[in-house]
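User: Reviewer 2 asked us to show a designed sequence for the structure in our supplementary figure. I'm pasting the structure tokens here. Could you produce the per-position amino acids so we can include them in the response letter?
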């Protein structure tokens, strides 16, 4: 399995508009962060996790820019704009041969399904305008695993302030973003993963996102072989500043980073 970090930033991205802090003016490309999303490639299939407003730019960078470029499914963690704001840009992928009848498969919770129907009513009309993106919305629930192109996907619950959202265990990969609290049952479900991707917004307290210290505590509880931090804000500090203070098996992810995960 290969995972590409399409974006590793928080909702504002990095650099943040109207900010001249050391992180935002850094010339290190690892300090430029689009909104968080990953692409998972496994046995010829390509699975997207979250589809934020930077999706088009991300795929122009990573796609083949031809009809050979494809996506096979989208997993959604929750309905906040920085995680679903690019879904209309899935339009070209909705017309892949096997998706023309039912639409592009999107796996998400019931609240996300409701949000997408309200956000994009033109995609769900009985007689839609020609050329609009069409989606096959498939409801999933935390704790109930499902098969996706031969991969077992287990949605797991985390708390984003008062909102219950999803992380995922996909084989030996654990993926958690936007969590403030990771319940013990989710910690147990993620134990045994080889690679954990988890959010760490900044070093000082935040109401709805884990700090660096809180993320490191969850990593210690789950005990993966290696962990990568994502959903990072400019307040975390620069890549060069933060990397040396991390444990030896924990790394700051950055946009365009590719990692291999054993099946």
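Assistant: Here is a per-position design you can include in the supplement:
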């Amino acid at each position: 399995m290969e995972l590409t970090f399409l974006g590793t930033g928080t909702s504002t991205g990095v650099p943040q508009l109207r900010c001249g802090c050391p992180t935002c003016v850094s010339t290190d490309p690892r300090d430029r962060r689009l909104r968080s999303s990953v692409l998972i490639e496994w046995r010829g299939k390509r699975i997207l996790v979250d589809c934020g407003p930077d999706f088009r730019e991300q795929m122009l960078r990573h796609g083949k820019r031809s009809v050979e470029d494809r996506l096979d499914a989208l997993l959604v963690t929750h309905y906040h704009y920085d995680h679903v704001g690019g879904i209309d840009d899935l339009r070209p992928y909705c017309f892949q041969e096997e998706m023309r009848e039912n639409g592009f498969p999107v796996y998400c919770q019931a609240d996300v399904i409701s949000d997408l129907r309200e956000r994009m009513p033109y995609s769900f009309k009985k007689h839609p305008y020609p050329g609009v993106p069409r989606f096959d919305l498939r409801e999933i629930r935390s704790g109930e695993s499902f098969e996706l192109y031969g991969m077992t996907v287990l949605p797991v619950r985390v708390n984003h302030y008062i909102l219950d959202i999803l992380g995922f265990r996909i084989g030996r990969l654990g993926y958690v973003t936007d969590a403030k609290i990771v319940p013990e049952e989710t910690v147990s479900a993620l134990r045994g993963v080889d690679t954990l991707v988890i959010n760490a917004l900044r070093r000082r307290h935040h109401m709805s996102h884990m700090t660096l210290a809180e993320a490191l505590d969850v990593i210690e509880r789950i005990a993966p072989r290696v962990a990568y931090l994502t959903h990072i804000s400019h307040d975390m500090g620069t890549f060069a500043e933060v990397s040396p203070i991390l444990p030896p098996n924990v790394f700051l992810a950055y946009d365009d980073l590719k990692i291999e995960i054993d099946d």
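For the response letter, you might also mention the following. The radius of gyration is 18 Å. The longest helix spans residues 212-222.
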